[in-house]
């Protein structure tokens, strides 16, 4: 399970935020081309929204490597990057909200065949689109682990609304895991066809045990993340050069 092999980390110090931006650069500039590499000569992808965002990482407990990122941009709904893609009524909401974006997984991790990759697999033959089929893919626990971290972070700061822009395939995976989401905007062309969605955390948690007991047990465990500044690192972190050797987007959630 996620907590046996991975750890979600709030990148709140210089070293971890540097790792977060470097991994984003490898995915969004070098792998997908969503952002222009020439605009980031220092090898760190960032934008004007990072100043008001919480940056998250996933660390492998086995190697000590940073292997995935996600960020949560916090602000009034109309100030978020996603606001241009929202329905008019959703955009008018005068609440503090969080937008989930920049979710990606290192291709170095995705190429591994070790147990920390195989933990997501189930013994049965699941029906496509079911929770079981989601758990058989390589990286579902990483996504769920990061969403759990976001959930705790928003709870601690009374952030009442959580939005994300995603391809239909990613939205289906989130629903298959047992989460409750609703459409918050029309389908738009933005790095492929995507749509704005809104999480309904309370509704999701109320029914999660019935829909997916495995996910419910994991999602309810706290603490969901550790601030990097408080970590006792058991492994020396990979050098910047080593961390820069290949990353690949699981780019369903991006803006």
Main sheet, how many strands, which sense, barrel?
9 strands, mixed
Q: From N to C, what is the helix and strand string?
A: HEHEEHEHHHHEHEEEHHEH
User: How far from one another are the termini?
Assistant: 29 Å
**How many DSSP E strands?**
9
**Integer-rounded radius of gyration:** 17 Å
- Number of H- or I-type helical stretches: 11
Secondary-structure-based class equals alpha+beta
Q: What average pLDDT do the residues reach?
A: 83
Estimate the helix proportion, in percent: 25-40%
Q: Low-confidence runs (pLDDT<50, min 5 residues)?
A: 117-138, 235-249
**Backbone shape:** globular
Percentage of residues in strands? 15-25%
Question: Can you summarize this structure?
Answer:
The protein is an alpha+beta fold and 255 residues long. It has helices spanning 2-5, 14-31, 88-91, 107-110, 115-118, 131-136, 140-156, 168-176, 201-211, 213-219, 240-243, and strands at residues 6-10, 53-60, 66-76, 96-105, 161-166, 181-183, 188-189, 193-199, 226-227.
Summarize the SSE layout with pairings.
Elements: H1 2-5, E1 6-10, H2 14-31, E2 53-60, E3 66-76, H3 88-91, E4 96-105, H4 107-110, H5 115-118, H6 131-136, H7 140-156, E5 161-166, H8 168-176, E6 181-183, E7 188-189, E8 193-199, H9 201-211, H10 213-219, E9 226-227, H11 240-243
Comma- or semicolon-separated keywords:
single chain, 255 residues, alpha+beta, nine-stranded mixed beta sheet, 11 helices, 9 strands, 35% helix
């Amino acid at each position: 399970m996620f907590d046996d092999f991975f750890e979600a980390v709030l990148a709140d110090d210089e070293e971890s935020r540097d790792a977060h931006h470097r991994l984003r650069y490898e995915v969004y500039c070098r792998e997908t081309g969503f952002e222009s590499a020439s605009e980031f000569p220092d090898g760190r992808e960032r934008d004007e929204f990072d100043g008001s965002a919480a940056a998250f990482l996933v660390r492998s407990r086995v190697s000590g490597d940073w292997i995935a990122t996600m960020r949560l941009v916090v602000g009034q709904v109309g100030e978020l990057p996603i606001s241009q893609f929202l329905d008019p009524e959703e955009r008018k909401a005068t609440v503090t909200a969080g937008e989930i974006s920049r979710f990606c997984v290192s291709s170095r991790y995705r190429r591994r065949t070790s147990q920390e990759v195989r933990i997501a697999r189930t013994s049965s033959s699941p029906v496509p689109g079911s929770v079981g089929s989601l758990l058989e893919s390589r990286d579902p626990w990483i996504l769920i682990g990061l969403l759990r971290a976001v959930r705790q972070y928003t709870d601690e700061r009374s952030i009442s609304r959580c939005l994300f822009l995603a391809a239909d395939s990613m939205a289906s995976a989130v629903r298959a895991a047992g989460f409750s989401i609703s459409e918050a905007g029309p389908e738009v062309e933005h790095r492929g066809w995507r749509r704005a969605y809104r999480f309904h955390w309370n509704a999701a948690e109320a029914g999660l045990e019935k829909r997916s007991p495995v996910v419910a047990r994991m999602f309810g465990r706290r603490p969901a993340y550790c601030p990097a500044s408080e970590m006792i690192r058991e492994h020396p972190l990979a050098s910047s050069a080593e961390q820069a050797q290949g990353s690949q987007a699981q780019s369903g959630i991006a803006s």
